[in-house]
Amino acid sequence: MSVSGLKFELNCVVGEVSVDSASFFALFEGMRLALKIDVDTDRGTREGVEPLMRICEKHGASATFLFSLGPDNTGKAIRRIFRPGFLQKVRRTNVAENYGLRTLLNGTLLPAPKIGKRNADTMRAVQDAGFAVGIHCWDHFKWQDYLHKMRLERIQMDYARAAWTFEEIFDAPARCAGAPGWQSNERSLDIYDAANLLWASDTRWPTPWATRAPRAPIAFFPRIGETTFETLHFSTTLPTLDELLGREEYPDDEINRYLIGLLKQGVDHVHTLHAELEGLHYASLFDDLLARAKAEGVEFFDLTTEAETLLADRSAIPVCAVHQGVIDGRSGELAVQGAVV
């Protein structure tokens, strides 16, 4: 029996994919990676953004920077102390060293600096360098910790503040957004639709990370309950650095090897970085990751360009359920991409 006559059946979380053997092996010929950079804090904006730009430019990697634009209330995150897994994460990721004492006091013993107002020039420099820019949030702490308790009008107000500040800085409305901590619900998705965004990234691929089948969709229209939303979504598919740091099974000098192993699945991936980590203490680790990726033949792709291409035929884009779930290495629940519906 010829190999070309074989049939492969691939089952994954988001549905069933059937391909012939030639197509199957072709799936592994290319590896594509999109970089999404969340900028959470005032310090991350001032000190972490420029190193990330330089590293991306060095390796010819496109990236999207999503900015927090309002008050830096990072210090208020201490209220998460009673959340399961939070203290463990704080200890293993060395939060005090990575974020700095001043950042950890912002919004408590120190006034919360207005990130967009203080760092408009830095943000514009990102766009001027050719990178895509978008909205992360107005108040990172408030959105991540209280979104599900906030009424629609309050969410609208927070997003409107971010959108207004973004437009004031960049002289154009935002085309993309990604929520803090992947906190998303039907009210926030309604607001995205009303804002006429090109794309958003509020969801995670479910763990374990290594089980993702070829051509499982990273781009989809989200559905919650009976409502399908109109804004194209890209899921973060790889573990973030803070989900791996300080764990015995992922020593620091093996993290990049592990991530490259996931990329070798031969599927499209979206990797979320943080200016406060990969832009500061772990900049050399990020530099090494991109060098390894290039050596393996990984192609970097831009999410805005990808969205424009996909949206040329909306009927071909799958609809996937979105539910609240947990991700290995992260405390609390967040929005997780589910099955094709």
From TrEMBL:
GO BP annotations, alphabetical order: carbohydrate metabolic process
One Pfam family of this chain: Polysacc_deac_1
SUPFAM superfamilies: Glycoside hydrolase/deacetylase
Domain NodB homology: from-to ranges: 31-301
GO molecular function, one term: hydrolase activity, acting on carbon-nitrogen (but not peptide) bonds
Name under which the protein is recorded: Polysaccharide deacetylase
Organism field: Cerasicoccus arenae
Lineage start: Bacteria, Pseudomonadati, Verrucomicrobiota, Opitutia, Puniceicoccales
